[in-house]
Write a structure and sequence with these properties.
The complex is a heterodimer of chains A (274) and B (441). Chain A has 274 residues and is mostly helical. Chain A has 14 helices and no strands. In chain A, helix 3 crosses helix 13, helix 7 runs antiparallel to helix 10 and helix 10 packs across helix 14. Chain B has 19 helices and 11 strands. Chain B has a 5-stranded mixed sheet. Chain B has a 4-stranded mixed sheet with strand order 8-9-7-10, sandwiched between helices. The chains are: A mainly alpha (274), B alpha/beta (441).
C-alpha cells in the first residue's frame, strides 16, 4: 500500500530542501555578488546588494587573458573524459559480464589508488613529465587527468553495466554479433544514461582539478584553475577581482550542469533503488 | 704541421661557436611571480625590455604566494628548470641560497650600481657577503596616524614614539560611538600576518624567539609584557572583530577613516595617502615603529619582494639581463614617467630617496627610508639570538611554527584564552616542533 504523504509534511520537506539547497549554493551566490562589487565594497563587510559594477571583470580580462586558459580547460576536461571512457568501457564490460574471483579485488585496488594523497607522487610524476617533455603540454595533462579519474569512471560504469541483464548480450552473441558489435551496438546504447552521467561527472571533476593542473603547467597548458590562482594577492585589495575570476572559471561548468541536471540526477540514482 | 692544422681547425670551430653565441638565439624567459601591484605594473612595462633585448621573449606565470612557493620548491628540488626568474620574499632568499638553489648575483653590470641598493635590504638578501636576489620593492613598518584626529584629541605623536605614547594616543583618539578606533593592528593568524607584527613588537620590547640554544622564549617576561600590552591596546581601543584583520582589512578601515593609528608595512603609506582610494589622504602623519622605554629596538621589520634566478635555469645570462633591467634605476624612472613618482617601487634604491621629485610626491619617503635603514635583520633582538630575520625567524620551520603560534595569539585576541595561556601554549608547541625538527643543529 502506498503511504500517503500529508500536505503538511510535503510543505515541510519542500522548505527543508530549499534551505539545504540555498546553504549549498550560498558560497557560489556570494562569489557572484562579490564579483559585481568594487574592491572597497567587497572588503567593507557582509552585504548582499552589490553596486553591479563590471570593473572587476574588466580588470581581470586586461590583467590575464581569459580565453587561453578557458580553451585549455575545455580541451583537458573533454579530452581526458573521452580518453577515460575509451579505456573504461571495455574494462567495465569485462568486469561486469565476465567476472572472476579477483574482479572485486581489482576494483578495490583501483579505487585504493584514489586514497593516496596526490602530493605523495608529485616528485616522481614531475620527473617523468620533465624527462619525457610532457611538462606544460596539453597532451601530458590530458593523460594525467584521465588516469586520475579512471578509477571513478570504471566504478561508475561497472555499476551501470551490472544493471543490464547478461541475457541480452548472450542473445546478441547468438545472433552472431562480434565482441566489438556487442560492446558498441548493444551494450553502449543500453547504458547511455549511465555513460552520460559518468561523462558529465568526469568533465566536472577534470574541470575542477586544481592540484596537477597547477603543478604540471607553467604557461602553455595552464587551465582555469591556474587562472584563478593568479588573482590571489599578498597585499592590496583583490577580493572582487578574485571573485570575478572565479565566476568566469565556474560559469561554463555551472551552465553545463544546469542543462544536464536531469541526466546527472538520473545517472547518479540509477540502480540506487531496487 | 698536422698539429698546427688541428689547432687552426679548433680555433675556427671556437670562433664559429663564439659567433653563434654573439648572434644570440632567441630565448624565452619564464618568470614566476605573485599577484602584487608592482609586479603587475612591471608586466605592462616590459615593452621597453623587449625593445632593448629583441632576442629575449618573456612569459609570465602569476600564482598565489603559497602555490608559487610550493611549485618553485618542487621545480628547484628536481632541477626542473621550468622557471628562469622567480619572485621570492626576504624569508626564502637566505634559506634557498644556503641550499644552493639560487644563482649568485655577484657579476651584475657596473651600470647596475649595486652599491646604490639600500644597505639594510642588500644585507638581508646576501649570504656571506654574496647577493642572491635583486630587490624590486622593499618595506619596513611604521606608525601611520591621523593628524586631524590627533589634533582634535590634543595629543602629539613624536617621530620616535614609545609604546606608552602610542597607548596614550590610542586612548585619546578612540571614539567608539562614531566608529573611530584609536589603533588598528593585525590580528589575523599567520606567520606573515599577525606574527609579523607581533614578532616586531616583541623585538621592540626586548624579547626574542629563541635563546642561543634554540629554546623558545615565550615564557620570558618580555614576551608576556608585549602580548599583554598588545591585547590591552586592541581590546580597549581596537576595532571589533580584530582577530580576523590582516593588512588588507586594516588598510580598508584606515582608508575609511575608522583608525586613529595603524602600525604596519611602510608600503601602506602610498595607499593611505592616495586621494583616489583613501578618504583621509591629506591628513596622515608618519612616525617610526615604537619601542619600549629603555630598549633600543624599533622592531626590525624588513621585507622585500625580490627577483632571483634558480640554479636550475638553463638561461642564466638572459635571466640576469632581465633581473638587472627590472630592478635598475632606469626602471624606476620609467615607472615615474608612466605613472608618477608616487608609484615608483619603494625601498630598494638610495638614489630614489635623494631624488627631490620623489620626496615632493611621497610625503612618507623620509620615514620609509629611516625605518628600512633602522632594521637590522642580522640581529633583530637586543638579546643574543642564533637566527637572522627581522619580523620572522629565517629557518624553514618558521612558516609552520609561526602560523601555529599566530593562531594561539589570535585566539587570545578573540577572547578565547588569556595571554598567559596563549604564551604557555605557544611555548610548549614551539618546543615540540623544534625538537621534532632536530634543533639545536
Amino acid at each position: 500500500m502506498a503511504r500517503a504523504v500529508s500536505s503538511r509534511a510535503k510543505v515541510g520537506y519542500t522548505v527543508a530542501a530549499w534551505i539545504v539547497a540555498l546553504l549549498i549554493f550560498f558560497p557560489i551566490l556570494y562569489t557572484i555578488i562579490t564579483s559585481l562589487k568594487s574592491e572597497q565594497e567587497a572588503i567593507a563587510g557582509f552585504d548582499l546588494i552589490p553596486s553591479f559594477t563590471l570593473e572587476s571583470f574588466r580588470a581581470v580580462q586586461t590583467q590575464n587573458d581569459y580565453w587561453k586558459p578557458f580553451t585549455n580547460s575545455v580541451i583537458l576536461s573533454l579530452g581526458s573524459t573521452l580518453l577515460a571512457l575509451i579505456v573504461a568501457i571495455p574494462a567495465a564490460w569485462a568486469m561486469a559480464f565476465s567476472p572472476t574471483k579477483r574482479t572485486k579485488d581489482i576494483l578495490m585496488w583501483m579505487l585504493s589508488t584514489k586514497m593516496m594523497p596526490a602530493v605523495a607522487v608529485l616528485v616522481p610524476i614531475y620527473l617523468i613529465f620533465l624527462r619525457t617533455g610532457l611538462m606544460d603540454t596539453r597532451i601530458g595533462l590530458t593523460v594525467m587527468l584521465m588516469l586520475i579519474n579512471l578509477p571513478i569512471v570504471v566504478w561508475m560504469l561497472y555499476t551501470y553495466f551490472r544493471e543490464i541483464p547478461g541475457e541480452i548480450l548472450e542473445a546478441a552473441r547468438m545472433d552472431g554479433a562480434t565482441l566489438r558489435d556487442e560492446i558498441v551496438h548493444v551494450l553502449t546504447p543500453m547504458a547511455v544514461p549511465g555513460i552520460a552521467s559518468t561523462l558529465l561527472l568526469n568533465v566536472i571533476l577534470a574541470w575542477n582539478e586544481a592540484f596537477w593542473t597547477i603543478q604540471l603547467t607553467t604557461t602553455n597548458a595552464a587551465p582555469l584553475s591556474a587562472f584563478i590562482a593568479s588573482f590571489s594577492s599578498p597585499q592590496g585589495l583583490f577580493w572582487a577581482k578574485l571573485s570575478a575570476a572565479s565566476v568566469l572559471a565556474i560559469a561554463p561548468i555551472l551552465i553545463l550542469g544546469w542543462f544536464s541536471q536531469k541526466q546527472l540526477v538520473r545517472g547518479l540514482t540509477f540502480g540506487a533503488v531496487k | 704541421m698536422n698539429s698546427t692544422f688541428r689547432a687552426l681547425l679548433g680555433a675556427t670551430a671556437l670562433c664559429a661557436v663564439g659567433g653563434a653565441a654573439a648572434a644570440q638565439d632567441p630565448v624565452t624567459l619564464t618568470i614566476a611571480t605573485v599577484n602584487n601591484g608592482d609586479m603587475i605594473r612591471m608586466q605592462s612595462l616590459t615593452q621597453d625590455f623587449t625593445d632593448k633585448n629583441p632576442n629575449i621573449a618573456l612569459e609570465w606565470v602569476t600564482l598565489e604566494e603559497n602555490i608559487l612557493r610550493e611549485r618553485v620548491t618542487t621545480d628547484i628540488a628536481t632541477n626542473g628548470g621550468q622557471y628562469d626568474v622567480l619572485t621570492i620574499g626576504t624569508y626564502e632568499v637566505p634559506i634557498w641560497a644556503r641550499q644552493g638553489w639560487l644563482t649568485p648575483l655577484d657579476d651584475l653590470p657596473a651600470e647596475y650600481d649595486v652599491d646604490d641598493l639600500v644597505p639594510a635590504v642588500r644585507e638581508a638578501l646576501s649570504v656571506d657577503g654574496t647577493l642572491y636576489a635583486a630587490p624590486f620593492y622593499a618595506e619596513s613598518a611604521m606608525v601611520m596616524y591621523r593628524t586631524d584626529l590627533a589634533e582634535a584629541a590634543g595629543v602629539t605623536i613624536p617621530d620616535n614614539p614609545t609604546w606608552t605614547d602610542i597607548k596614550a594616543a590610542a586612548e585619546a583618539m578612540t571614539d567608539k560611538e562614531n566608529e573611530v578606533y584609536g589603533i588598528c593592528l593585525r590580528g589575523k593568524p599567520g606567520w606573515g600576518e599577525n606574527m609579523a607584527f607581533l614578532t616586531a613588537m616583541a623585538n621592540s620590547y626586548g624579547a626574542r624567539w629563541f635563546d642561543t640554544d634554540w629554546n623558545p622564549q615565550f615564557d620570558s617576561p618580555e614576551w608576556n609584557e608585549a602580548l599583554t600590552d598588545y591585547l590591552t591596546l586592541m581590546n580597549e581601543y581596537g576595532p571589533p572583530g580584530a582577530s580576523s584583520n590582516g593588512f588588507n582589512e586594516n588598510l580598508s578601515l584606515f582608508q575609511q577613516g575608522k583608525c586613529g593609528m595603524w602600525i604596519d608595512a611602510t608600503v601602506a603609506a602610498s595607499f593611505v595617502t592616495d586621494p583616489e582610494d583613501s578618504t583621509v589622504a591629506d591628513s596622515v602623519g608618519f612616525a617610526q615603529f615604537p619601542n619600549k622605554e629603555g630598549v633600543d629596538n624599533h622592531g626590525n621589520w624588513l621585507w622585500a619582494w625580490n627577483l632571483a634566478i634558480p640554479a636550475s635555469s638553463q638561461k642564466q645570462d638572459a635571466a640576469k639581463t632581465f633581473v638587472a633591467w627590472a630592478t635598475s634605476k632606469e626602471y624606476t624612472d620609467m615607472v615615474a614617467e608612466a605613472e608618477g613618482w608616487r608609484a615608483a617601487p619603494p625601498g630598494t634604491r638610495t638614489s630614489l630617496y635623494e631624488n627631490p621629485e620623489y620626496q615632493e610626491a611621497a610625503p612618507f619617503a623620509a620615514m620609509t627610508l629611516n625605518s628600512i635603514n633602522a632594521a637590522d635583520t642580522q640581529k633583530s633582538s637586543v638579546q643574543d639570538i642564533p637566527y637572522t630575520g627581522g619580523q620572522f625567524v629565517a629557518i624553514p620551520e618558521f612558516q609552520g611554527i609561526g602560523t601555529m603560534v599566530g593562531q594561539t595569539f589570535s585566539a587570545a585576541l578573540a577572547g578565547q584564552m588569556s595571554a598567559e595561556d596563549a604564551l604557555a601554549s605557544a611555548q610548549s608547541a614551539t618546543a615540540r616542533e623544534m625538537a621534532r625538527a632536530g634543533y639545536p643543529k
